[in-house]
Amino acid sequence: MNVEKGYVEAAIPEGIDLKAEIKRLKEEKGAVIMAHYYQQGEIQDLADYVGDSLALAQIAAGIDAKIIVLCGVHFMGETAKILCPDKKVIVPDLNAGCSLADSCPADEFEAFVKAHPDHTVISYVNTSAAVKALTDIVVTSGNARKIVETFPKDEKIIFGPDRNLGNYINSETGREMVLWDGACHVHEQFSLEKILELKKQWPGAEVLVHPECPRPVRMVADVIGSTAVLLKHAQESPVKEFIVATESGILHQMRLSCPDKTFIPAPPKDSTCACNDCSFMKLNTLEKLYNALRYEEPEVHVDPEIMERARRPIVAMLEKSV
Ligand code: 13P
Ligand code: SF4
């Protein structure tokens, strides 16, 4: 067994029922599987909890289990570890990063913070633990607007790293937060033109948009929200057709919970690529999940000093999200 590549490299025994074995190992080891909505459907189906980034953090904070297998990206595993330092937190493939988190290196963010000394620092959860350690309060797409609005209207605020989410909150709240210039490579790919073409084909469809999408795409949205908000809207709306502008994994829960409705993934600008798939999220596979449970690796580790400093803004977020 080898974890040098960031996931367990070990042969899968021939002829095993992978899904049954994952369930058996999970019970045997007292582990829980948590999955983000962008994971492949088979992983979501095996998970004890499926949710958006906010729900995953809230669940991790109160979980009673020895091992958390977080099927999502690295920052989600870090958040769980920071909230549960005594538990073993495993991400099946530690290479599952995030282009948005990568667009905000901690040393550059620190210089940005220092250049704005009298500002409150609000960071999106899609950041490294080191960036969270420089932050006053963390937000997710599910609570960002609400949390920003808890500050006085004239509060000077730095918001990072997603310029699209920051720009959305600025326009919704009339604030002028100073924005870090970062973005997610998946959500940047959605285009207004492609959605308008789809609208001609599906004139009655509602357009569901994640706030990480650029402004022109947000302009044609019927609903803008986190993955959980978009899912809930699809479940509750009397409308039967939806154009979905976020990562394709969310369609799994939408189709499962609304079998009588039609969900159309918005195509990326360049329709020859599958860029509405988050390549990082999709690094986790059933095989890696199985080996992760089998060997209890690869574990998420966070520097103890950073962990202490990063916990405070995450807890501050959870306290404002009840
Ligand atoms: P949610 O907070 O909506 O789950 O989104 C997480 C994410 O990574 C969006 O790209
Ligand atoms: Fe990060 Fe974008 Fe993937 Fe979300 S979809 S995890 S923001 S790279």
Summary tags:
binds iron/sulfur cluster; four-stranded parallel β-sheet; 322 residues; alpha/beta; 15 helices
What is the structural class? alpha/beta
Estimate the global geometry from the Cα principal axes: globular
* Computed CA radius of gyration, to the nearest angstrom: 20 Å
Contiguous helical run count: 15
What is the percentage of strand-forming residues? 5-15%
Hetero groups: 1,3-dihydroxyacetonephosphate, iron/sulfur cluster
Secondary structure topology:
Blueprint: H1 18-29, E1 31-36, H2 41-46, E2 49-51, H3 53-61, E3 67-71, H4 74-83, E4 88-90, H5 99-102, H6 106-114, E5 120-124, H7 129-132, E6 137-139, H8 144-148, E7 157-160, H9 163-173, E8 178-179, H10 192-201, E9 206-209, H11 215-219, E10 223-224, H12 227-236, E11 241-245, H13 250-257, E12 262-265, H14 286-295, H15 304-319
Parallel strand pairs: 1-2, 1-3, 3-4, 5-6, 5-7, 7-8, 9-10, 9-11, 11-12
Characterise this structure.
This protein has helices spanning 18-29, 41-46, 53-61, 74-83, 99-102, 106-114, 129-132, 144-148, 163-173, 192-201, 215-219, 227-236, 250-257, 286-295, 304-319; strands at 31-36, 49-51, 67-71, 88-90, 120-124, 137-139, 157-160, 178-179, 206-209, 223-224, 241-245, 262-265. The protein is α/β, with parallel strands linked by helices. A four-stranded parallel beta sheet has the order 2-1-3-4, with helices on both faces. A four-stranded parallel beta sheet has the order 6-5-7-8. Helix 3 (53-61) packs parallel to helix 4 (74-83) and helix 4 (74-83) crosses helix 15. The longest helix is centred in the C-terminal third of the chain and has 16 residues, at 304-319. The mean pLDDT is 96. Residues 52-53, 126, 140-142, 184, 212, 226-227 line the site of 1,3-dihydroxyacetonephosphate.
